[in-house]
Amino acid sequence: MTEVNKQGQETNPFAKSFRDLIVYQKSRSLAFDIYIISKTFPREETYSLTDQIRRSSRSVGAQIAEAWAKKRYMKHFISKLSDADGEQLETQHWIGVAVDCGYIERNKAEILKTKCLEIGCMLGSMIGNPEGFCNGSKKEIHETHGQYFVNSLGENLELSIPDQEESSMFGSLTSDF
């Protein structure tokens, strides 16, 4: 679904659905990684840490989907994206707890944290610049990876996140459902 432009930025020429948004695709990848890694948590964590980290990571994409449904109303759109960002931060918290408990190795936790931070930056840019996404007259949203990283003056910012394969760290997702 995504392409790379001449500047090396990911682009998604026309997002016709929340599933086409780069930030949504990244949130799905994060949720899948959390699911796989949390399968190794001890059984006594099933109804506490395992449940919490899975719920918060899955909620990021769900909130993005809800924001898409409310993009006709800018304040509702921003509110749902803020909820998604909150869930992303909660996921970071649970990753830290899992490291503290010895359930996740630090190097894997850093990969997960980096994914969370990238999603958070993208959500923050969408919240700060909702006009590009909230246009009731447009049926298609033009999206580039670079548009997420602009400051309040509209200048592009560089984000130093290590290159990672777009799919999950445990393999590629099989559905684009």
Brief digest:
The protein is mainly α. The chain has 4 helices and 3 strands; from the N terminus they run E-E-H-H-H-H-E. Helix 1 packs antiparallel against helix 2 (49-69) and helix 1 packs antiparallel against helix 4 (106-128).
Notes on the protein architecture:
- The radius of gyration is 16 Å and the shape is globular.
- The protein is mainly alpha-helical.
- The chain has a three-stranded antiparallel sheet with strand order 1-2-3, with no helix packed on it.
- Helix 1 packs antiparallel against helix 2, helix 2 (49-69) packs antiparallel against helix 3 and helix 3 runs antiparallel to helix 4 (106-128).
- It has helices at residues 22-38, 49-69, 74-100, 106-128, and strands at residues 3-4, 10-15, 141-144.
- The chain contains four helices and three strands; from the N terminus they run E-E-H-H-H-H-E.
- Helix content is 50%, strand content 7%.
- Mean pLDDT is 83; it is low at 160-165.
- It starts with a strand and ends in a 33-residue tail after the last strand.
- The protein has a domain at 23-130: 23S rRNA-intervening sequence (de novo design (two linked rop proteins), Up-down Bundle).
Number of helices: 4
List low-confidence stretches.
Answer: 160-165
Number of strands: 3
**CATH-defined superfamily of the domain at 23-130:** 23S rRNA-intervening sequence
State the CATH architecture of the domain at 23-130: Up-down Bundle
Arithmetic mean pLDDT = 83
Please give the radius of gyration in angstroms.
Answer: 16 Å
Helix content: 40-55%
Q: Per the principal axes of the C-alpha atoms, what is the gross shape?
A: globular
Strand content range: 5-15%
* Distance between the ends: 13 Å
For the biggest β-sheet, the strand order reads 1-2-3
